[in-house]
């Protein structure tokens, strides 16, 4: 993992349990609400931090891993927000629009960086600003086109929702690249290649899921 806390196996186990509990909490209430996911996030974060205090070596690094542990727990729990969102009146349409925009944004950004990673935001990170910009633009266009066909959306509302989701997804993917570069500069071994290429898009979709719920509740309904 690019963001690697101490006691990684224990933290991974806690996150797996938190993800399962978040799925249950998303469907348990009679009415759709995201509040139970907040409680799961708090409990998962507390359990993950306690798991890092067991061994002395991990305990010495626990204070520096507060932010990374919180991001990992929030990332796994945020996918359950899609279940809650699916229970909202415009939830299914919002999921389709926002995640399609995010997917297109990530693909275009990655392809652009593979051809022309320019201008480099940092010499150590093989990503450029052009990929993020082109990805967000392509995702916004995709959402606007989908919004013209989906019931409850217009091209304008689709474009706005897609812009937010696509931009956040691309930025989250870029942030994972920075975290991986920071680890390697600190002398830590690189992440396994398949995980290195998966964690950026997964982080992007996790952030887009939370953004989709927020857009649906605050903007579309």
UniProtKB/TrEMBL annotation:
- Record keyword RNA-binding present: no
Q: Does the keyword Acyltransferase apply?
A: no
Q: Which UniProt keywords apply?
A: Membrane, Transmembrane, Transmembrane helix
Specify the domain of life of the species encoding this protein.
Bacteria
Membrane-traversing stretches: 7-28, 34-54, 66-84, 90-109, 130-153, 159-179, 200-220
The identity of this protein, by name, is DUF92 domain-containing protein
According to the entry, what is the taxonomic lineage of the organism?
Answer: Bacteria, Bacillati, Actinomycetota, Actinomycetes, Micromonosporales
């Amino acid at each position: 993992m690019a963001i690697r806390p101490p006691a990684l196996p224990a933290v991974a186990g806690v996150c797996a349990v938190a993800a399962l509990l978040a799925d249950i909490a998303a469907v348990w209430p009679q009415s759709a609400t995201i509040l139970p996911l907040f409680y799961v996030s708090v409990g998962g974060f507390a359990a993950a931090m306690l798991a890092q205090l067991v061994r002395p070596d991990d305990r010495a690094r626990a204070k520096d891993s507060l932010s990374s542990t919180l991001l990992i727990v929030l990332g796994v729990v945020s996918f359950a927000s899609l279940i809650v969102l699916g229970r909202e009146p415009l939830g299914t349409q919002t999921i389709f629009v926002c995640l399609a925009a995010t997917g297109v944004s990530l693909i275009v950004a990655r392809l652009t960086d593979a051809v022309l990673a320019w201008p480099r935001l940092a010499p150590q990170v093989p990503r450029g600003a052009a990929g993020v910009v082109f990805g967000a633009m392509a995702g916004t266009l995709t959402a606007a086109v989908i919004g013209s066909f989906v019931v409850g959306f217009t091209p304008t509302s689709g474009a706005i929702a897609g812009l937010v989701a696509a931009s956040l997804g691309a930025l989250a993917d870029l942030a994972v690249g920075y975290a991986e570069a920071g680890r390697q500069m600190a002398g830590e071994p690189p992440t396994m290649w398949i995980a290195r290429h998966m964690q950026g898009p997964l982080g992007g979709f996790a952030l887009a899921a939370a953004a989709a719920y927020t857009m649906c509740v605050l903007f579309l309904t």
